[in-house]
Write a structure and sequence with these properties.
alpha/beta, six-stranded mixed beta sheet
Length: 498
């Protein structure tokens, strides 16, 4: 069996951390190979060594049967290695064709770009991968799924032999995921190899042939996808069995309404929204993409203006004109986009946690550093944030630990209502369970939680009540015992009662 990539004894150290310890990893020719592991297991570091962002401290790499010391991303690209990150690296104001051939535009003898040839070549590549996208279309007008296809087309134009796809389905709908998988199999049929990285194990089993599992910087198993199961993979990932995926919540008393939303509408598409969340209760908000779930959260938190309707806290009408008003009334909002909206990645863990909580650590506008350190260390311990130090830059943490920093920030503010928008998106099964346990503990302490999620099993398992949205309206409400996937999806698609 020929291999496109063989990595042996790969070791990489950072200050205070061994990110990779004698890792072996190999991908066969024409293979779709999954790479899985908890956040912080070493997946990102391994990928960055493959694509030349990091240099290994020890080990050897063979690519296409030749020994390589991959110096930088340009060198990796010249070898035929292309990485498609979750954050897509495209120029939104340029056309599809310009993005596909960026830096390699065909020129006329005059030195000017040959636009006709550029678009003809780009369209040919798009046809090769059976993508129905016009090379003249402006990238900012495309969906996330279409932008991914543009990135894949760019990789094909660079003669890529190995494509690394990092969490490619994180923001896609089920229909878009099916289309992406068809495209991946199409690439495989044309002789390409793919490294598929995902926390969604159902997708890993659907698309991959072999699975490599990393844990704590070591390779702990390479398994045939057809000869193993989800439970075995999880055990390898976390080093233990997780038991129930969704932990049971006991000894929780649901009390009075903390927040009540009455007939709220705005110009962002939400219409006549009414519901309440009670003390010690998790209310799940479900809907398909574009249903208006996040818009409801943004309206409650004062990011988007409410044009009609009222908000009550403990039966008292409140005016929420901006997030500052929301925080003052005891509302916290952990946004779905933690990297661009929930955190300042260049700032430390400590600074991110205390940013909206300055009154607790200041006196006469001066920061009390001892109080700040004590506060942050207490929340880092409570939420099990894995970081060498609280002064570590947040961008250097894994996705799961970044999410915990977001939660620590808001818990530090002592909220009465906590809005969680996609709280487990892009994090591994072990970190997910920690988030679920934390949610259970918070409602036990009396918080009111509004949880928005596109993962239906998560909504059904973690919610005391489920609200369903369709086209900006609430189209259904169920107690947990009455909710079923069929009922919820019927409301989400507008077929309930038809």
């Amino acid at each position: 069996m020929e291999y496109i990539l063989q990595m042996k004894g790969i070791t990489k150290k950072f200050p205070g951390v061994i990110a990779l310890n004698q890792v072996d990893f190999a991908v066969r020719q024409n293979e779709i190979h999954a790479l899985v592991g908890e956040n912080g297991a070493g997946k990102s570091t391994l990928v960055k060594i493959i694509n030349g962002v990091h240099k290994m401290d020890a080990g050897k790499i063979l690519f296409n049967q030749s020994h390589q010391n991959i110096r930088n991303p340009q060198h990796a690209q010249s070898l035929g290695i292309s990485t498609i990150y979750q954050e897509l690296h495209l120029i939104p104001e340029l056309s599809v064709g310009e993005n596909i051939l960026l830096g390699r535009e065909p020129k006329r003898k005059s030195g000017l770009i040959d636009w006709q040839t550029l678009h003809r070549r780009s369209q040919t590549i798009l046809h090769e991968i059976e993508a129905e996208i016009d090379s003249h279309a402006i990238v900012r007008q495309l969906s996330i799924a279409q932008k991914q296809i543009v990135m894949i087309a760019r990789a094909i134009s660079q003669q890529a032999l190995l494509l690394i796809m990092d969490e490619p389905t994180a923001t896609l709908t089920s229909i878009e995921i099916e289309s992406l998988f068809r495209l991946i199999r199409n690439l495989q049929s044309k002789g390409k190899s793919v490294i598929f990285i995902s926390h969604k194990l159902d997708e890993v089993f659907e698309i991959s042939e072999r699975i490599t599992v990393l844990r704590d910087g070591k390779s702990v198993g390479v398994l045939d996808a057809q000869a193993t199961n989800k439970e075995a993979i999880i055990k390898l990932m976390v080093g233990r069995t997780l038991g129930e995926e969704f932990p049971l919540r006991n000894d929780t008393t649901i009390g009075e309404a903390i927040i009540s939303i009455k007939s709220v509408s705005n110009e962002k598409g939400i219409r006549d929204i009414s519901f309440q969340v009670r003390r010690g209760e998790v209310v799940g908000l479900f809907g398909l993409v574009g249903a208006g779930r996040t818009e409801v959260a943004r309206a409650i938190f004062g990011i988007d203006k409410i044009t009609n309707g009222e908000v009550f806290m403990n039966d008292q009408k409140v005016a929420i004109r901006n997030p500052k008003d929301a925080i003052a009334h005891g509302i916290a909002f952990a946004t779905e986009d933690r990297k661009s909206q929930g955190l300042i990645l260049g700032m430390s863990v400590k600074e991110n946690i205390t940013l909206p909580n300055m009154p607790a650590i200041t006196m006469f506008s001066l920061i009390k550093h001892r109080a700040e350190n004590q506060l942050v260390r207490a929340y880092a311990k409570k939420l099990n944030i894995k970081t060498p130090t609280i002064d570590q830059e947040t961008m250097k943490l894994s996705g799961g630990n970044q999410q915990k920093v977001v939660l620590a920030r808001w818990l530090c503010a002592k909220p009465k209502v906590l809005i969680l928008d996609e709280p487990t998106q892009g994090i591994d099964v072990g970190a997910k369970r920690e988030i679920y346990l934390l949610i259970n503990e918070l409602v036990k302490q009396g918080l009111a939680i509004l949880m928005i999620s596109s993962e239906l099993p998560e909504i059904l398992a973690m919610s005391d009540r489920v609200l369903v949205m369709h086209r900006g309206r609430i189209s259904g409400e169920f107690l947990q015992r009455d909710a079923s996937p069929e009922k919820v999806l019927a409301c989400a698609t507008g077929f309930a009662g038809q």
